Amino acid sequence: MTSLNRLLSRIKNERGAYMVFFAILIPILFGCAGLAVDLGNGFARHARLQKAADAAVLAAAYVYDKDDVTDLKTVAHTYLEANLYADTAMRDNYKIDKITKRVYGDGTDETKGVLLSLYVSQNVDTTFMRILGLQKIPVSVEATARLVPDSPITGDPGVFGFTMVAGYSGPVDNPGVLNKNAIYINSDNVYIHGKIHSNGPISIDHNNSGDKRSVFIEKGAFSSSAKTDLELWSNRRIVDWEHEDNTGPKDNGFYNNDTMLRPRDPPNRNDPFIYNPPPGHQDPGLWVHFNRFGYYDGTSQGQDVLASNTYVDKINIAMEKDNSSVEKVYQYVEKYRNEFSPTGGLYRKDESSCKSGEESIYLDTDGHYDSAGSGSGFSENHKQYKIIITDGDITVNRENCNTSWTNMTIISLHGNVNVYANEMHDRFKAIIYAPNGCVRYYHKVAFEGSIVAKHIWSNVWNCSFYWNPFQFGDHGESGDSGSSGTTGSGGVKQVKLHSNEDKDYSGIEISI
Question: What is the value of pTM for the model shown?
């Protein structure tokens, strides 16, 4: 037998062994591929759940009150559902395992700091791993927020003591036109933390989405210069049976404070049907039903915000030297104008040109604050400016901001401000001032800072606004990188995400 014949004979004899080997190997290969797919899906779900838990624990921290913790889990559920809304499987399948707190130091004094931790878990369905009998992959996350209930804000922030101040004070005219309203919100699932003031009418596209209020604010945090709901809420409609069918035993919380235009007619009038109706045919009268803010109270409807309980004098937001409300804004702009452009004209120095310790700035104003001004606006791509001060319109895009900044300062003295910018960490953080124009917030991340403008418009769904003055005017632009809001007891607190482990806090974890 030749060598070739011996080789062919050997291959033929071993063919069966190779077939057995591949028969064993193929399921292993498919199992590994399935494991990779299912684990990849599990990691993606874990990241999404972590992001939702981070948002939920921050929101819960804002309503934390050591004497009343009933709202915490409700708020956490609300924000988890909002952030998981696009993924039905995740939204309907998560579980809050527990919410705990740890107190700074020996655990006895909450004014020194509290850590709130939210534990959330979920079972993720597998696809390929089912073949091996593994139906679900458990996923769990922990998110922690740090709050200091009584941290003082240095100095008086003036108009920036509010999350929003809207200066327009014209009469109710057209709910769908921005320049006829002080505040215009045409989206759902919006939560505004911190104080809000409006000199004039407010338009909200929807009163509710399903059985949930569209726009929530903090209890007692709203003021307006309108004396009645008819002067304050511009988006309204005349209702009769709609009011009748949604109050009383069928009350869902949105119709309790409608304004009556005409009461039910008495039964002794001449028309036998309208004024003396047969059973089941009453005259309900006429009512005005408003789309309005709701104070968050842990329920899906909250409590109606009424103009009669919130009236204060108008806040003057005009850029005037003797206007105490904007004194720090005036001093701030004058400081940079006198330093870089005392005679007017454009001065700019972007982030890439700055040395260590320098601030990037775009400045174009002639200092004529009571007139239109000769300076232009701002719309530059691919250059980053921490401070933008102009006479004209400002458009802030993603390329204009740096995620390492504490915040931006954006001032348009005679124009509008449009924000399409990138987030700084988990939020877009800025002080924005446009006393003669509109601030339009388009970006789909939470806002932190203060917005003061003639008109304020937001069309971002599932968005929160948080107050932080960033110590404006006290120490340049420095400030805590956390966020601020009001506690249940009316104090000021700093809230921000924190490491899950911190040896400075008590090892005693108290379930809430």
Answer: 0.66
